[in-house]
Amino acid sequence: MSTALLIANIGNSDIGRDKISFFSSEKGQVNIYEKSRDLWRSKEFENVELLLLNPVLRKIQETFDIVGIYLFCTEQNPPHPQDTKFIAHIVKSILCSRYDFDETSINLQVISKNPADYDEMLRLYRAEIGNIPESADHVFVSLAGGTPQQNLSVMFESVARFGEKTTMIYTPRGSDEAVEHEIGHEIYKRMISHRVDVLKERGMYGLAADLADEYGVLDSNEIKMLRAKNHRILFDFESAWMLFNEIKDKLPEHREEIYNAINDLEKLKNKDMYALIRELYVNMLVKWEQGAYVDFLGRLFRFEEAILRFVFERETDVTTEKRKGGYAYFVHYVKMHNTLLQFLEKEGIYLNRIEPNRRVLRKILEFWARKAPFGCKSVVALAKHWVVPIG
C-alpha cells in the first residue's frame, strides 16, 4: 500500500462528543486553554471523539498507509485563552490508544507566535514544513482546524514543498465524511507557471521549457518556442531556425515575434556581419541580466574582437578569417604596409606571430588614429544597420 503523511492544524472544534465540540460554542466565555489542560491532566478520554480528524483518517486509510502525522497547535507567551496545545496532546493520546499509531510517528509542532499574523505564520510554516521528510508517496493537509492564517500558510507551504503529491482534505462541520480538494494541484501549477515566467524573463529558456514540459503548464508549441529561443542563446542558429519555422503558423499571438526571429536567423546563418555583432551584443546583455558574469565576460571579449575585426575589414577590404590553417591575407596586408609593421614590432608584435586577435587589431586601429587619418565608413555602417532594442 502507498504511504502518506497527514499535516493538520488543531483547533477548538477538534474534540467533542456526539458530533458536538466541547469548546467551539464556548469561545469568549471560558478559558479553553485552561479547560483543555484540565481535561488533559484528568486522562479521561474514553468518550472523547476526534470530530474533524476521524473522517479524515478514515478517508485516507482507504487508499494509503499513514506513516506520519504532524499536528500544529498554539501556546503563546503568555498563553491565550484559545490556545490549543492541550487539545493537540489529547488528540495525540487518542491517536495512539485508539487508532494504533506509534507515538514516534506523531509530531506536535507548538506555535508560540500570534496565529492571526499572516507574516509570522508563513515564516513559521515554511520553516517547520521544510523539515518534514519527503519520503512518503502522498501528503494530505487537513484545513478544518486552526485560524485562517494557519490554514492559508500550511496550504501554501505544503504545496511549495511537496508539489503535486499534496491534497487538501477537510471535514465539513456536522459531517461524517471528509472531502478532498484538488486546490493543491491548481496552486502548484500556478506556482510552476510563475517560475516559468521568471525563467523566461531572465532568458533561461531551456530551464523554462523543461519545467513547463514536465508539469504541463504550457502548450507544446509554446514549449517549442522556448526551445528555439534557447538554441538561439546557445548560438545554434540552424536548430533555432528549424523550430521557429515549425511553429510559425501555430501561435497567432506570437506570429510577429516568430517571423522576426526567422528573418534574423536567416541573416545569422548567412554570416551577415551586422546581424552577428548585434546578436552577440543582445546575448551578452542576457548573460549580464542572469548574473552569469563569467559567460558575460567571455562574450564581452568576443564582442570586442568582432567590432575590431569589423572595423578592420571595412577599412581595408581584407578578411580576418582563417583560411587553410592560417591568416595569409591579414599577414600579407601588414607586410605590405611597412610603417604599420614597424609600429607593431615596436609594440612587441612580430610578423612571425601575427594574427587578428584583440591585441593586434587594437594596435592597428591605434596606429591608424595616430599616423594615418582614415574614413569612418565602418562606424557609419554600424550606426546605420545595427539597431539594438532596449529592454
Cα-based radius of gyration, to the nearest Å: 34 Å
Question: In which order are the strands of the major sheet placed?
Answer: 6-5-1-7-8-9
What does the average pLDDT come to? 87
Distance between the termini: 54 Å
Do you know the CATH topology of the largest domain?
Answer: Rossmann fold
The helix/strand series, from N terminus to C terminus, equals EEEHEHEHEHEHEEHHHHHHHHHHH
Largest sheet: 6 strands, mixed
Q: CATH homologous superfamily of the largest domain, by name?
A: Hypothetical protein VC1899 like domain (Restriction endonuclease-like)
What fraction strand?
A: 5-15%
Number of helices: 16
Low-confidence stretches: 379-391
Helix coverage percent of residues? 40-55%
Question: Would you give an account of this structure?
Answer:
The chain is built from 16 helices and nine strands. The strands form two sheets. It has a six-stranded mixed sheet with strand order 6-5-1-7-8-9, with helices on both faces. Helix 6 runs antiparallel to helix 7, helix 7 packs antiparallel against helix 8 and helix 12 packs across helix 15. Helix 3 links the parallel strand 5 and strand 6. The longest helix has 24 residues. The protein has three domains: 180 residues, 3-Layer(aba) Sandwich (Rossmann fold), CATH 3.40.50.10770; 82 residues; 78 residues, no CATH class. The chain starts with a strand and ends in a 6-residue tail after the last helix. It is of the alpha/beta class and 391 residues long. The protein is elongated.
